[in-house]
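Archive entry. Fields below.
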Amino acid sequence: MTGIQGDLKPGAPGETAAEVPQDVDLTAAAADAAAAAVPLEIVAQSLGEYLRGWWQKLKSGDSGLLPVLVAMVIVAGAFEILTPENAYLRPSNLVYIFGLSTVYMVLAMGEIVVLLLGELDLSIGAVALMGGTIAYKLVQQPSPNWPWWLAILTSLVCCGVIGALQGTLVARLRIPAFVVTLAGFLLFTGMLVVILGGADGSLSVSSADPNQSVFYNLVQGSIDPVVSWVILAVVVVGFGTMMWMRASGRRRSGLVAPPASLTAIKIGLMAVVGVAVLVICTVNRGGVFATIEGLPWVIPVVIVILGLWTVLLQRTRFGRYVYAIGGNPEAARRAGVNLAGIRTWCFVLCSATAGFAGILLGSFYYGQYSTNVGDPGQLVLYSVAASVIGGTSLFGGRGKPIHGVLGGLLIGGIAYGVSLMNLGSLSIPLEYILPGAVLLLAVLVDVLSRRGARTGSVIRV
Amino acid sequence: MARIDSDPLTGPVAAPSLIDAADATVDLTAAAAVGEAPTEILAQSMGEYLHIWWQRVRGGESGVLPVVLGLVIVGVAFQIANGHFLSPQNLVNIFEQSSIYILLAMAEIFALLLGEIDLSVGLVMGLGAVVVVELVQPSGSATCLLCPHGLGFPAWLAIGVTLLICAGVGLIQGSLVARLKMPSFIVTLGGWLILEGVALIVLNGVPVSLKNVTVPAQVQISNIFWGYFSPTISWILLAVVLVIVAAAWWFRDASRRRRGLVAPPPSFTAIKIASVAVAGAVVVGLCNVNRAHFGVIEGLPYIIVIVLAVLFVWTMLLQRTRFGRYVYAIGGNPEAARRAGVSLISIRTWCFVLASLTAGIAGVLFASWQQFLSTNIIKSSNAYVLLAVAAAVIGGTSLFGGRGKTLHGVLGGLIIGAIYNGLYLMGVSSEWVDILIAIVLLAAGTIDVLSRGGSRSRA
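PREDICTED_STRUCTURE:
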């Protein structure tokens, strides 16, 4: 379990100390011991101390987001140099890469919930396509013509039920997740074709219809530039105030809190990234004949999912239990965690997330849905690869939803970069080889770093 | 450690002491052995043997019984649905179609026995198929990126090089798994992706075929799948094999009895030989029926002989050699095996090499079967990976390592092939085939878990 909760207050006199003087020394000693065990970056009182703690953590193998961020910079730089006319980093391309990566990001966020347990879900590609198909089917005209929100909800519930079935088999019967979800992969790939009405069946939504256009716009639509800026301002001010108030509240009540300068830097960084994204998005990317500008809907959508899963995994009891099971299932069981319940819920969440990814996938293909929008096997491979590349461990207990977003962006970025380069007959093979190589590299880093890491599960024989 | 050997007393410790030691030692050793050896080995009469076998089945060690029952059920069900299903022509057809699943499942079993998984077997097969076809393109015609002028290898060299390349892939993956302790799941997943790319590069976007009858190597490779022995030679072949098998079994058991070792009753040996003879005669008889719509195609297909030969070699390797015992030991408990002095690294690496090698054989068969390879091979290879795992598990190989036999791959592969064939005859579309196979896989996984005592084995 990672050190997410920093509620220890080393060195502070407790209430018990005032009442029972002879215990003071003991308590203080215990507190010192706790201080030694708590990572330095949590108890840091100044920015310098914090950076030092961060560096120590890095050296001990907990490299966090650094490798994937470095990899993204390298990939971006390399493709910018290698692509003809240095087109890779054009705003229109960057927005396109985000759209392309969306499905991998959302799928990876689903996969991470299961990976954290030390399990695996191979069915999410097929479940994603199922979810998308169900939702698209429900908004078809003239019938059933359901409202878009009900269609999405139904699709997510259906996928959740799929997850519950698979999760029950894994959690209660303890059939290996690998086999259950492999069967799920075959089963739902077959059912998908049945629902689509044959291998060449297809569904589509129109951007002109007000109900269907919601689906179309999920990836293809943009928010008006002015509104985009207003949203950014509201979000930055809201989040900034919240972070600042929480940190100062903790300091006031004597709890461990990050130094004020660190909070300020975090807020500043958030604002800078937000402004950068918006500047890129508000450039007209429609070319000469049409104007397409403004924040794509998909960016806030992904951020909302990221926020939901991050809060669930890192701020709730459920999340702590997930990390506990991933770190050591037997220990978690003895601590009273309901293994079967938590495991089943993780599969439910994973499948529901995958279902939403499927809806986004149709939107990325301009509202067209057929068996050609995605190969379920490839979707699974890329989403597992994205999670691991982002920094989530395959052995359970280590990982965050943000890893899925960054890993997904990296994979999408590589895939698009390769397709931009004029490699002729090599370009399609490289679209397979590069993610595979990156995946192996990421796991190698995972395996090697775990040898020195404090968290996560133990190494095998 | 699972029960790998039907006669554990031939192990390096027990056998010499029984032969050489004084009478007192013999009694002690025999007493100790009786306590540990599986009881059906000690049975002295046929009735006793059957009784003990039934006890074992009831105790959860059902062996190949579920999958054989499954085959019977599948056979009867499809025969009712379509009277053509159990015709001699279609049975041979089913075996031919299943051969790829069978070989891939046999490959997968090497990884599964260790408690590992190899997801790359399908693409190793794809790569093998592409490579072998590219290598036999005549000079000046091939379009492969790596061999722009065509190599025009003879068939044996092309097959040899292909198998070497595939084994090399296994060596790389096995080293990553065994030395760097990377999870096999992810190494072979990465291998899957990379091999997709490599196969596409080798293919270079241009379809290749084996249909040029003026090139002897292409004809020979096509014949691997499509060729067959003449009916007379089929019978002679069967007779030779039967005589060798019968003699080997009979003399082994007789010499064991003579030396006072534990051996099955003579009646049992005789029944075993007779049943193999009957099975062989049935197979050859079925194959000798003319199965062509026009003209004459009759006789034992090469492919049956090849599959049985691979089955024989791998069974011997896994159940009669020290290497095989180590494989089962690692699968049963890697830490215990390590402490007993087994080199985990080399055994694991070799298993991945053998898995990829077997997948390479499947690749040659696949090329011979298809005769025409385009980029579609990637898509079919993807499907084959999952079916290979499914076949192994359906056949009775445990996913947790340490339990399984090469024979399971044959039976599981036959079930999958039969389901595909039966549903195809009924005109069911492929998506329903996937659904049915998923259900069979789930059932097999459930049986695997329940027979191991289910939830108590893992936290």
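CURATOR_NOTE: The radius of gyration of chain A is 24 Å.
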